[in-house]
Predict the structure.
Amino acid sequence: MLVRRRRWWEQRRREKREKRERRKKSRLIRSPDKERTILSILSAHPSVLALGFVQVAYEGTMHIFITLWPEILQETVGKSGAPIQFGYVFSGFMVSVMVGSSLYSSYVRRTSSPSNVFACSVMLGVATIALLLPLAAHNFWLTLVSFLLFEMTAGGYHPCMGVMRTRLVPSNVSATMITLFRVPQNMLVVALLLCYERGTHKEETVVEEDSAPAVSAVSAVSAVSAVSHTSRSTHLLAVCGVVLCLSMVVLLLVFGVSRDVVAARRRKEEVVEVVEVNKKKKKKKKE
């Protein structure tokens, strides 16, 4: 009885040791020593910086999009148009997020060696096109479809980024890393929104100073200001789209799709080997 109990404990220890070794191999960055700091990790591994740049670009764009989308949709309809049911639009956004997350999960399940770099770069490219579409035509339905596409990328971005963080960033500093990159992200959002509000305020003061007694002149100035205001909000989203495109380029340059695919295949082979070893152990026990 004691011999069996001892063998069982030795087997448990061996399995825990193998699990620890597998986790170390699956990460691109191994767990750092206590003396290593966050700045040393950032300087030693540019992949973490690239991941942080993608986080700043996408999540900052998401904050700006949340602020501007009702105003942009209202501008496409105009004051004389029918009122927009913003509740239905928001429900459509949530459905798009669900569709995006389900598409990413199906891609991971059905692909033999899924590449998170490829999936993230595709999502960034689609988000760039979605934010540039409202510049092409001042149309309500086209703008709504582009916004739904952007929300669809948001549904796939969060699980994909979560997987990449677990493989790249050590677990003992992951929370600090995410908080560290939130600082430039919030600074970018505040700077862009302040520039937008300052431009709007200047436009309103110019219209008030140049107001003439003639009604036709006032209406003409207000029409010009409305057109420029519309272009300012859509141009701000277009700037965010360009930033997303830059983050996609950085992601592909630093990681590369081929390297990610090779790493995924290696991880799959290691898992298959471990499963085979466990099967052999179980057969030996039965014998």
